Amino acid sequence: MPEYRAHFDFDIRFANGGGLAGTGFRLDLPGADSTEDEVARLLIAHLGLALVDEVDLRGLRIVEEPHRGSRGVDAACPATGGRRVVDLSHPIRAGLVTYPGLPAPTITPHLTREDSRARYAPGTEFAMDVIHMIGNTGTYLDSPFHRYADGSDLAGLDLSSLVGLRAEVFHLEDAWDTSRRGIRSATLADRDVRGAAVLLHSGWDRWFGQPEYGVGAPFLAGEAAQWLIDAGVVLVGIDSVNIDDTESGGERPAHSLLLGAGVHVVEHLTNLGSLPPRGARFTAAPPAVEGFGTFPVRAFAELPA
User: Fold this and answer.
1) What would you report as the CA-atom Rg of the chain, rounded to the nearest whole angstrom?
2) What 3-state DSSP class applies to 285?
3) Res 37: pLDDT
4) FRET label pair with 183: which of 19, 68, 124, 169, CA 20 to 30 Å apart?
5) Coil, strand, or helix at residue 269?
6) Is 17 helix (H, G, I), strand (E, B) or coil?
7) Are 241 and 272 in contact (CB under 8 A)?
8) pTM across the whole model
């Protein structure tokens, strides 16, 4: 189903004095036939304004464009009785470089199909393989034990905090400022994220597996991590090389804050652009490995078909 957004400049005057102006503003719309008055009301709702006296819109254009999660407009998720599953994980293969500087996985046979024929009945054969890899491979989840010795390891995680979470997806790739790579709390503050998985779509996954992936990557600022904790988030995922700035000299405030508060972190997501801002359910469950802090997941989202 097509989605539409309004592009415009605006001036707002308040009944008790003062005003507010904006240029190059974009706003989700429920449909292509929204009137100027409807756009003005949606603008007021999105900004959470009160005592508005007059709204003047200039250069209003309605264009077909994916929603970005404006308040007051529900994401288009038609319920037709079915279910659609969107894969958000990078495939793992031998030699895959996930994080520059970390070892790539190796996959070797333990029992080949040819050798198995001597062990089983005629016509019956199996393949058994050994994979040797660091936990930080592909799309993976960080548990508190990854950062803190007394934190919960993978086996200690509550599945209810990993499966079927309400997803709040922030599509940030269109307005990316390469001079300021950190995602700030002000960018996230217009959503109710309590009990949700916050998924940060920067579009950086386009460089996955290439040298460019590890340089100049977007990350979550420390103050934004604290804001998410205070807001009650359950999990934070990003389609980038790290939730933190890997070029900061070793500081990891987002990891430290989030994992210290028991908030799971999923890194190296992909395909987040296929999700609406709201309406999806997110799952990223690792195996229950004791004494282990991070491991690949098959991350996915469920949507009405």
Assistant:
1) 23
2) coil
3) 85
4) 19
5) coil
6) coil
7) no
8) 0.81
How far is it, in rounded angstroms, from Cα 257 to Cα 263? 8
Q: Which of 96, 109, 174 is CA-nearest to residue 139?
A: 96
Burial class (CB in 10 A: 0-12, 13-18, 19+), 54: exposed
Closest among 133, 146, 142 to 98, alpha carbons compared: 133
Residue pair 264/283 in contact by the 8 Å Cβ criterion: no
Q: Phi and psi (nearest 5°) for 185?
A: -65, -30
CA distance linking residue 183 with residue 195, whole number of Å = 20
Which residues in 110-122 are b (16+ Cβ under 10 Å) and which e? eeeeeeeeeeeee
Residue ranges of the chain with per-residue pLDDT less than 50: 77-79
- Residue 54 CA, chain-centre distance (Å), reads 37
- Name residue, tokens 């950086």: 204
CB burial string 30-53: b at 16+ within 10 A, e below? eeeebeeeebbebbeebbeeeebe
Q: Is 231 exposed, middle or buried (0-12, 13-18, 19+ CB in 10 A)?
A: middle
Strand boundaries in 83-208, DSSP class E: 83-87, 106-111, 128-132, 140-142, 165-171, 182-183, 196-201
300: three-class secondary structure by DSSP: strand
* Residues whose CB is less than 8 angstroms from the CB of residue 116 and which lie 6 or more positions away in sequence, other chains included: 124, 125, 126, 127, 128
Looking at the chain, how many residues does it have?
305
Residue type, 102: L
Q: Is residue 67 within 8 Å of residue 76, measured between CB atoms? A: yes
Task: Report the C-alpha gap between 76 and 276 in whole angstroms.
Answer: 7
User: Which residue type is seen at 43?
Assistant: L
- For 137, the token pair is 């491979």
Q: State the pairing for strand pair 235-238/128-132.
A: unpaired
pLDDT of residue 212: 93
Q: For residue 54, what are its two tokens?
A: 């007059």
Give the pLDDT score at 119: 95
